[in-house]
Request: fold
Amino acid sequence: MKCFFTVLIILTTLSSFGQNVLRMNEDTVDSAELKKTYDHYVGSEFSDIAHELAKRAGENSILQSYIPNEKLAEPWTHSMALTLSQAWRFHTDYAVRKEPRGRIFEVLMQVVEDDEIGAGRRIALGEIATRLHWGSYPATNDGSLPPMEDTIRRLSAIAQDQHEDAALRRAIVPILYQYGDPNAYLDLAIELTSAETSPLAIGETFRFATPVRNSDRLTPANRAKYLNHVFQLLEKIDDKRSGTGYFLAMHIGAFVGVKPVRPGQGSFAPDQRLPEYQGEHGLTEFFFQTTVDNAIKWWAENKNKYQEANKTDAGNGSKAICRASNVLRSPSPDPKR
Reply:
């Protein structure tokens, strides 16, 4: 009897999996209907369909990493996901359309602010981030973006709202940190990234949330807070063997201004040309671990100067960073850097 129920469970699972596969691919059956969907969206004003299109695109993510050019040209012959993605791209690719970057910026902002759109909000946020990035350089700033203060204010309202989607809030933080005042958003970056499930995930998320190009804009107290936080993470991540924490170590090095030993390498990394770092299949774990060791050594030699500045305003010696430290766990032997 036990064997019967085991077989029944397996068959039920396989049946469910098969139905899911069919559901994933059923949109490839009727290309004519997908063509109508595509034509409807590309033939409409973006402001009229942006919310609906973003919502549907967020619900139909593309699972393939490589898609042939002919499918990109005729997405309705591939899947609903690609059809929606290419319809979105039709309206948002300002380079192809030869449009000012700011032409549909307000529409994109309204999509991000619409809490009924789900994952599609992050698609619109990606468009906003791209426009802000190129608009931040004089050579590529066409003057069409709205005032940065307004953009920061609206995105900050979402990121500060604890009822908002956590993934969206984390995705907004790098924009606030880079284009706003990083002193105003460092605590938020620590709070939101510390919700990840492991020290390695926290470190990676925090690294992306805090671009080092803004390190010189932090106050001395916040620089101390930043360094105490990242080194606490690095020490938890470090397994003393595999070099896990390599990317975080280089990020910290760039933050404190450690120059690479040679062009093209990261801060704290040793000279990768040396024979002791060469293995049969490229750089050895010793190279990555040495990078982490160099970072930890720097901290041992310099951390005293950052301890006093990291005290709270109350002057009781407790570190502001302790708010997030309770979520840190023991490191795992995860080979990811």
User: Anything to note?
Assistant: Confidence is low (pLDDT under 50) at residues 1-28, 312-335. The chain has 17 helices and two strands. The first helix runs from residue 2 to 25.
